[in-house]
Write a structure and sequence with these properties.
Layout lengths: L4 H11 E9 L7 E12 L3 H11 L3 E6 L2 E6 L2 H13 L6 H16 L6 H11 L7 H15 L1
Antiparallel strand pairs: 1-2, 2-4, 3-4
Helix pairs in contact: 3-4, 4-5, 5-6
Length: 151
């Protein structure tokens, strides 16, 4: 399956997800690990599209997500930078663009190492909490815990 740029943009606009998770990790200086990921989930009958995306972006993995659903997922920072550059050059057209812009900012900050200090981590959490319909309550709780520790 050979995919074209405009098709990929439209498909990801409808089916893609830019997500940033924050997990407790006591061995890291800040106590938390930042886990950004780009994901597209499809029913097994359309798994060839996911393999097409993997070939198109030249990175990521295709694996079972849950039951009869499969996912194309990119987590490695270097590869996420490639994904971010692509969508900066070829912008999404729906409200998902706003989440992507926040996601790309977080990827940039991580590339700069900002996730490794408390203030940078706070900025990342504040930005991630405004993405998607996600887990902002949990992120706000982590942010409050960080500020309590430092204050």
């Amino acid at each position: 399956m050979n995919l074209e740029t405009h098709w990929v943009v439209g498909f990801v606009d409808g089916e893609g997800c830019f997500y940033v998770g924050i997990n407790r990790h006591p061995e890291i200086t800040t106590g938390y690990q930042v886990l950004p990921e780009f994901r597209v989930v499809q029913h097994v009958r359309d798994v060839q599209v996911l393999y097409g995306l993997k070939r198109f972006f030249k990175c990521g993995v295709v694996r079972v997500n849950h039951g009869d659903r499969w996912e194309y997922r990119v987590r490695k920072l270097e590869h996420l930078k490639t994904i971010a550059r692509f969508f900066e050059l070829h912008p999404l057209r729906t409200k998902k663009r706003v989440d992507f812009q926040r996601f790309a900012r977080i990827v940039r900050w991580m590339d700069e190492g900002r996730h490794l200090d408390r203030r940078g981590l706070e900025q990342i959490i504040e930005t991630a909490a405004r993405m998607n319909r996600g887990d902002s309550e949990t992120l706000i709780g982590i942010l409050a815990a960080l500020k309590t520790k430092s204050g």
